[in-house]
Amino acid sequence: MGDSVEEFLAKHRTSARWLDDIINVLLDEHDGTAHVREIAEKLLQYQQRDISTIEKTITRRINDYCSDATDFKKQPDCDLFQRVAGNTFRLRTFPHKPDIYDLMDIRFDEEMVQTMWLRWVWLCKSKDNEKWKLATNRQKLAAFVRWFEKPEQQKEYEGVKS
Fold this sequence. Notes:
Blueprint: H1 3-11, H2 17-28, E1 33-35, H3 36-44, H4 51-64, E2 81-85, E3 88-91, H5 111-134, H6 137-148, H7 151-161
Helix pairs in contact: 3-4, 5-6
C-alpha cells in the first residue's frame, strides 16, 4: 500500500486496526508468537480500556482469522494465525506482514470519515459499478485517499470536525 494510504490509515482508524495492531505486535516477537496477555499488555498503552476487555477483543479478532477456532468459516487466505498453545498464537506469515485490507470490509471508526467513504463508494459505483467490483480494497483505499485529500473534501471534513 502506498505511503499516503498508510499515513491516512494511521490517522483514521478502520475496523481492520485491531487486526493490524495484533499483527504488528506479533511481528515484533522473535518467532511471531505471543500469548494474548502479552499482546494485550503491549496494546494497553494505546487503548483506554482495562486489560480484560482488551484480551477479549484480541481473542475474538484472532479467532476470526484462525482456522484452529471452532467457528472459523472463512476462506483459506483469511487463516492468519495458528494456535500453538492455550491463548498463545503465531502469525502464519511471520516474518512477513499479511495484506489484511483485502480480507475485510472497510469501515472507518470516525463517523465523518465513514460518511465520506460511503458517499465516495456510492459515487464510484454510480460511475462504473463493474470497475468497482473488480477493484481490490487496496485500490479502493488508494483512490479514496486521493479523493479525500482534495481541497473541497478537506474543507468539508475540517468544517464538520471543528
